[in-house]
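agent> Task received from the user: take the single chain below, predict its 3D structure, and emit structure tokens. No templates, no multimer pairing.
agent> Plan: (1) validate residues, (2) run structure prediction, (3) serialize to tokens, (4) report one or two observations.
agent> Step 1 OK, no nonstandard residues flagged.
tool_call: predict_structure(input=
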Amino acid sequence: MNSRHDNSHWYVVHTHSRQEDRADMNLKAWGITTFSPKIKEQEYISYCNKMTYTIKPLFPRYIFAHFSIARVQQVQFTRGVSRVVCFGDSPTSIDDEIISEVKSRIGMDGYISIVEELVPGDKVIIKHGPMATFRGIFERKIRADDRVRILLETVSYQAHLEIDRAVLKKSIS
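)
tool_result: status=success, residues=173
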């Protein structure tokens, strides 16, 4: 295993398309510490009118690996890896603080959240479903399972609506 005392640094590894997990697993098999941050997004499936979760890399086709420069050839020829990202002729290391910052954003579920925060009073638009394009005002979260309450605004009618958070986006107007 690498230690912080053997001149190891974090580097960005460019993977082959959709092979982040393969590269991550193979580098770990070499005893190289890796970091492959992921996001969990809710997606709306229109044909069955349901929400589902998908797991995606935060940086598609890129992972981070911690190794000494002497192992760069081994890393570059690992299955799933396209190359180590370089500026000029040599790989450029990433500061430990950057990796720590990305890691600090990992939630209790093990994923990084990239959902924009809503505060009471924010204007929102419904993105999907039978009420798509309707506008409203965000009131509050209902439960921990991403349900929210909005005040729906229509031409001559106002109503409260409980809806999945994932089908909302902030309105700029």
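agent> Step 4: summary for the user.
Residues 125 and 135 are 5 Å apart (CA to CA).
agent> Done.
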